[in-house]
Amino acid sequence: MRPAAALRAAWHRQLAALCAVLGRWQAVVAHLERALRWLPGDPRVAARLALALAHCGERDAAIGWLERTVALAPVDAASWFNLGYLRQQAADEARALQCFDRALALEETLDRAHYGKALSLIRLGRHEQAIAPLLRNTELQPLSPYGWYQLAHVYARLGRRDALAATARRLAAFEPAVARRLARETGLASSACSASAGRQ
Predict the structure, then answer these.
(1) CA of 50: how far to CAs of 63, 68, 159, in Å?
(2) Residue 91, SS3?
């Protein structure tokens, strides 16, 4: 690596970081592309470029750069998750699921990858299999309503009313408004959601 090339690449990375703070994502893309001209094959810059492209609404280009990133740095769990997230947005659930599994193989405590995996399983109609990653997500993020909410809907779809009611009560303990919405959506009596909330 030539010192001059490294310095120029670092300069463009710094400018890209400044532009990101200002929300100037097209400028971020331009600076990161210039950084890659000086240091081709840098997986960190490729990953940042992918995220900047996603901010610009260029999902397909972002997916392409993330594919290059995981090829260059296959042990980067965050990049596997981001690739899965973008593939999920593109309704490519099967390949999104593969990406989330790769991310979790590298970093099992990556809570958002458990959540993403569960969403892909739900969209693929594999509701029973979605329970385990949702339970792990709620274990890692017990005060986030998203995992509990999706878990309750899975139980509702599977006809597991006792598990649904228990999950709704857990949710009501810290997000009563979300629990009331859940009760309306699943036909669960609001009293069942709130029965234990007052005792927490």
Answers:
(1) 7, 10, 41
(2) coil
